[in-house]
Amino acid sequence: MSAIEIVLWVAVPYVSIIAFIAGHIWRYRYDKFGWTTRSSQTYENTLLRWGSPMFHLGILMVLAGHVVGLFIPREWLYAIGITEEMYHWGATVMGSFAAVLTLAGLAILIYRRRTVGPVFLATTVMDKVMYVFLALTLGFGTLATVVHQVFGSGFQYRETISPWLRSIFGFQPQPELMANVPILFELHVLSALALFALWPFTRLVHVFSAPVGYLFRPYVVYRSRDDVQGTRAPKRGWDPISTPDPQRLRRP
Amino acid sequence: MKVMAQISMVMNLDKCIGCHTCSVTCKQAWTNRTGVEYVWFNNVETRPGVGYPRTYEDQEKWRGGWKRTKRGNLKLKDGGRLWKLAHIFSNPKLPEIHDYYEPWTYDYDMLLNAPAGDQIPVAKPRSLLTGEDTKISWSANWDDNLGGSLETMQDDPILQKMSESVEAEFSKAFMFYLPRICEHCLNPSCVASCPSGAMYKRAEDGIVLVDQDQCRGWRMCVSGCPYKKVYFNHRTGKAEKCTMCYPRIEVGLPTVCAETCVGRLRYIGLVLYDADLVAEAASVEDEHALLAAQRSILLDPNDPAVIEQARKDGIQEDWIDAAQRSPIWKLIQQYEVALPLHPEYRTMPMVWYIPPLSPVVDVISGSGADGEDARTLFAAIEKLRIPIAYLAEMFSAGDPDPVDLALRRMAAMRSYMRGVNLDGEGDERIARAVGMPGEDLQEMYRLLAIAKYEERYVIPSAHAEQAHDLEEMGCSLDFEDGPGMGGAGPFGSSSGQSVPVAVENFQSLEARQTADRPSSPGRVNLLNWDGNGTPRGLFPPKDKDVPQGDMGPVQSTGKRNKGKDV
Ligand code: HEM
Ligand code: SF4
Ligand code: SF4
After folding, report:
1. Which in A82, B47, B255, B478 has the greatest CB count within 10 A?
2. What tens digit of pLDDT does each residue of A167-226 get?
């Protein structure tokens, strides 16, 4: 086990995870106002109408696929009757479909970002950085799948990458599992880790606001006294009058 | 019964001269920022005309507001919750910037810096979206005063609804102005469309606001509002809307548009309504019955049962008192001359309009007849069927009767008051013809013609003990210059922490306006001088011995200093 491997498969993942979590907390506290999709639809909709749903539908499928492939041990799937062949076939077919959808959507979105004047001018530096790492991650991931899964003999990432990732989350890192992983998969993992570290500082924070609650709340929202979340810090010295708790006097 | 209070407005269209003062002052107060260049919380449309954004009233196209399902429930016209979420990645009903207009400025620099030459320099229009030269081809009031209307008028959604082909004749006969703000609806479809729950109706006064810290830019409210009165700030990625100038309302001041209205035609006051009945009233089957249904949920503030319930529901005495003195209640319920804009959208709008009589009068006077004679006026109202039908499409879902009654009462008031002025007493037959006692006509005349500031605006202040609840609900639009974030932050325009707007800001603003030193630190020039103090560089020095600091010697402006030794 070389030092490089420890850094890549133990240190980098934890740094990325910490940046991801702490970053989100910091961003939410510091910048609720900047927490938005920053939709550019008012500028242009002919391209967005295709690009955005394609990309989002694709990436959500990709995410779901990753959850199944990475976090669910294959023994569990065997237990419910999903054999290796079934899994491999499903993952390759659905994965390829999702990848085509995502990449085509991404291509439209990036093309639109670059060519539509107002959209380009409204693009921040972080948007650009985000797109670089998003495209890299998706690109390496697709390439790895095409090379090894579709045309190659099939790489058993459920014996290597998946347990490695679970070992990270179990706080028992096993970097040796990554020793013989093909370079394309390694690059895919590393660029994804970089993307996760950048995530809280980009517009991707909108993913964590996916408005599921909308399905369950009453249509019209009223707000008044009790459920107010003020933006102003309470003034020092102006705490409301309250009776102290006499129990505290009796505590030993 | 659950009694709630609602700040509402009535505009007397009879008196609107279409000067756009309201729009301009509103813009200066609220939307002269980047990202909302194209936004007019208050806009004035010439009708007939296509409106702003273009053809917003065509709900078959834009699908804002509510619709009644076969089972008698209300559903968002654009589709249910799942439909909304399924279309969140690209909202198919969102107006694009060109449905409003492409905002522009002029290359003023050219006027100042052009080298001397034979030609007079011109300031070319520049797009505020791309910064490039642009050709101005539309704006918020492009068809003002029917200018160029022959080309666009046929797109007026209301004319399209009316069966006869009336456009060309129409413009000769009838034209009026329609100032519009957010309706602060009792059943707001914008709020219902917001996936993140960032939009809310304030329980205390019914003002509908967007919580800028919770808005995530899903932009469903923009398409949800049938009046298109929620706008998308394309720099910050957040929805913004008319705030009913809540920081002013909270201290008892009218909105900026009302305060500055040249025609003094806006009235602001409270109404009490029964919140339990809103949904029921908004879902009556017959569209023509919607107006009556909405009127029926407004509660009589003088009814002891209502007062008692209002107290139970936590409405303060001075608010009940204000509701009793409310001009809105009188115009809507007592005189029945004010009508809601498009009740058929089923949002229960709370900015109501007195339909314009003046075009009718103009037609009569134009033909040489007596425009103050009741019989002539009534006959003309009868005869001008097409304009009445047009007004009915706007204010009563197509039912001509309420518009007819409102116009007749306005006409009766006119004739009756002539009697009072010329003969010393009004003709009671006129009053009876419109089903109102003569005293009521006189009262109405007082309210519509000579009411003073305090009668037009009956606005109770927010309660001090509630104030910290009200003021800081996080609707602050004032995010520029957040700590540490100069201009566009790394996460997009104005990211960073918010600077609260507060009731106290009113005091500090007033203090600033009447202070005797300029408020902007550093170098002061003609462009950023706020009129206070005498900064160095703007005035020739008076006394060479006075040491001059960066802000210049502090000299009194004379304001607020009467009696003091200066
Ligand atoms: C989970 C639910 C999600 C929802 C509801 C959602 C919704 C949205 C919306 C409304 C926009 C603005 C589109 C516009 O009008 O301009 C947007 C943009 C975007 N989203 Fe999502 N999103 C989701 C998940 C994701 C995920 C998982 C990713 C990627 C990892 C992602 C990446 C992006 C990107 C890159 C853009 C910018 C597109 C552009 O304008 O160039 N989103 N999203
Ligand atoms: S008019 Fe105002 S309150 Fe009514 S739906 Fe539109 S934005 Fe909402
Ligand atoms: S300021 Fe008054 S008179 Fe002028 S356009 Fe506005 S509402 Fe009409």
Report:
1. B255
2. 999 999 999 999 889 999 999 999 999 999 999 999 999 999 999 999 999 999 998 744
**Residue in chain A nearest B471 by alpha carbon:** A230
Is the separation of the CB atoms in A103 and A141 below 8 Å? no
Element (H, E) at B223: helix B220-224
CB atoms within 10 A of CB A216: 7
CB contact under 8 A, B489 and A34: yes
pLDDT of residue B360: 87
B94/A222 CB distance under 8 A: no
Ligand 2 atom, smallest distance to B208 CA? 3
pLDDT at position B510, please? Answer: 66
Ligand 2 pocket residue status of B347, Cβ below 6 Å: yes
Contact B496 A30 (CB under 8 A): yes
> Considering only CB atoms, which chain A residues are within 8 Å of B85?
211, 214-215
Is the Cβ–Cβ distance between B170 and B159 less than 8 Å?
yes
Residue B155 backbone class (left: φ over 0; alpha: ψ -120 to 50; beta: rest): alpha
Nearest CA in chain B to A127: B491
Which residues of B fall within a CB distance of 8 Å from A213?
196-197
Q: How high is the pLDDT of residue B482? A: 37
**ipTM of the complex in this document:** 0.87
For residue B75, the SS3 value is strand
The tens digit of pLDDT for each residue in A229-238 reads 444 555 667 6
Kindly report the three-state secondary structure assignment for every residue of B400-442: HHHHHHHHHHHHHHHHHHHHHHHHCCCCHHHHHHCCCCHHHHH
Nearest CA in chain B to A203: B491
| Residue of B62, B90, B472 for testing the chain A interface, max A β-carbons within 10 Å | B90
Contact indicator for B415, B377 with CB cutoff of 8 Å: yes
The pairing of strands B208-210 and B3-12 is: unpaired
Which residue, B485, B249, B476, is CA-closest to A230?
A: B476
> Number of H helices and number of E strands within chain A?
10, 1
Give how far A36 is from chain B: nearest CA, Å. Answer: 4
Residue B339: strand pairing partners: B353
Closest ligand 3 atom number to CA of residue B179: 7
Distant-in-sequence, close-in-space partners of B286: CB < 8 Å, separation ≥ 6: none
pLDDT of B363: 83
Confidence at residue B531, expressed as pLDDT on a 0 to 100 scale: 67
Q: What's the pLDDT tens digit per position in B336-393?
A: 999 999 999 999 999 999 999 988 888 888 888 888 899 999 998 888 888 899 999 9
> What separation in Å is there between the alpha carbon of A142 and the centre of ligand 3?
61
Check whether A95 has a pLDDT greater than 70: yes
The pTM of the full predicted model, rounded to 2 decimals, is 0.86
Cβ atoms within 10 Å, residue B351: 25
Q: State which amino acid sits at residue A218.
A: P
Number of H helices, E strands in chain B: 26, 17
Which stretches of chain B drop beneath a pLDDT of 70?
163-173, 464-533, 542-566
